């Protein structure tokens, strides 16, 4: 038995069904300029009710392709139709560019070809433009601002471990999973075991030591009521015997980054978290 750990070499293709053959081909090949590189045409295979079909591929960079199935003489099921719902929009394809100039060039190409831009948004470490194809499938072109590193991987593990713990309790009937705050609080507890536990007399915020969250740390350093330690094990620790308060505009955070401000974990009560103000009070303060 070969004990070598297998390694994936990237995405070869993603595939989705379409009932708009011409519109799909003209959108990807002509409007986006993605080369049509392969097409399979076949009689139905597998199950007896499988229709004849086309399976065609457009090249999308670095050996990857985006592919579609067109099932001949079939009606589109309602469950495959695009709907304005976050669950449908969650399934999407994201392509990478290397520079901001390339991102803007793609935005200009969409506009020149009459493709509506849904929005342009800065996340934590990526900036993206979003649009949709004739089938209603969400598409994204994204620029990664910095490489992902070991801090990102460790923080991701802490996040998913806390979330899976909450999900396990929910499935076991021993707890509920109602809010992301549960994940953030559990993360803070885990980080606090190595960074110094909090007895509840202070509001505590942990901030991952990465550039996008740096304004939280710098703002706190300038406030005499806050105490800032670290970074230890990849996190800054911000403490206050009173409330920890941030203003989104003062930080210069875009909404997507603002909504993730507590991602490092916190210990306390979230008194306010709206579009512009975040306030965390000590856990012992009701």
TrEMBL record:
This is Glyoxalase. Residues 10-144 form the VOC domain. It comes from Burkholderia aenigmatica. Belongs to the extradiol ring-cleavage dioxygenase family. Its cofactor is Fe(2+). Gene3D superfamilies: 2,3-Dihydroxybiphenyl 1,2-Dioxygenase, domain 1. InterPro entries: Glyas_Bleomycin-R_OHBP_Dase (IPR029068), Glyas_Fos-R_dOase_dom (IPR004360), VOC_core (IPR037523), Xdiol_ring_cleave_dOase_1/2 (IPR000486). Keywords: Aromatic hydrocarbons catabolism, Dioxygenase, Iron, Metal-binding, Oxidoreductase. The keyword Transferase does not apply. GO terms for molecular function: dioxygenase activity; ferrous iron binding.
């Amino acid at each position: 038995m070969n004990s070598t750990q297998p390694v994936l070499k990237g995405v070869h293709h993603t595939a989705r069904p379409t009932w708009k053959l011409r519109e799909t081909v003209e959108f990807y090949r002509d409007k986006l300029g993605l080369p049509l590189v392969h097409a399979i045409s076949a009689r139905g295979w597998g199950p007896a009710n499988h229709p004849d079909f086309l399976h065609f591929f457009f090249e999308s960079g670095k050996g990857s392709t985006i592919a579609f199935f067109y099932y001949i003489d079939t009606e589109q099921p309602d469950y495959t139709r695009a709907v304005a719902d976050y669950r449908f929009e969650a399934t999407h394809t994201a392509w990478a560019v290397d520079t901001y100039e390339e991102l803007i060039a793609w935005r200009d190409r969409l506009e020149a070809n009459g493709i509506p831009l849904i929005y342009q948004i800065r996340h934590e470490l990526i900036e993206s433009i979003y649009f949709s194809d004739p089938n209603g499938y969400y598409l994204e072109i994204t620029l990664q601002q910095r490489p992902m590193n070991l801090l990102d991987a460790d923080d991701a593990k802490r996040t998913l471990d806390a979330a899976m713990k909450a999900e396990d309790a929910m499935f076991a009937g021993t707890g509920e999973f109602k809010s992301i705050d549960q994940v953030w609080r559990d993360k803070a507890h885990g980080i606090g075991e190595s960074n110094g536990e909090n007895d509840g007399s202070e509001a505590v915020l942990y901030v991952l030591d990465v550039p996008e969250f740096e304004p939280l740390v710098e703002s706190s350093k300038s406030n005499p009521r806050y105490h800032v330690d670290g970074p230890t094990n990849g996190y800054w620790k911000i403490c206050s015997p009173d409330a920890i308060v941030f203003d989104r505009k003062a930080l210069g955070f875009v909404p997507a980054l603002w909504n993730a401000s507590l991602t490092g974990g916190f210990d306390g009560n979230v008194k306010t978290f709206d579009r512009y103000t975040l306030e965390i009070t000590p856990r012992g303060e009701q």
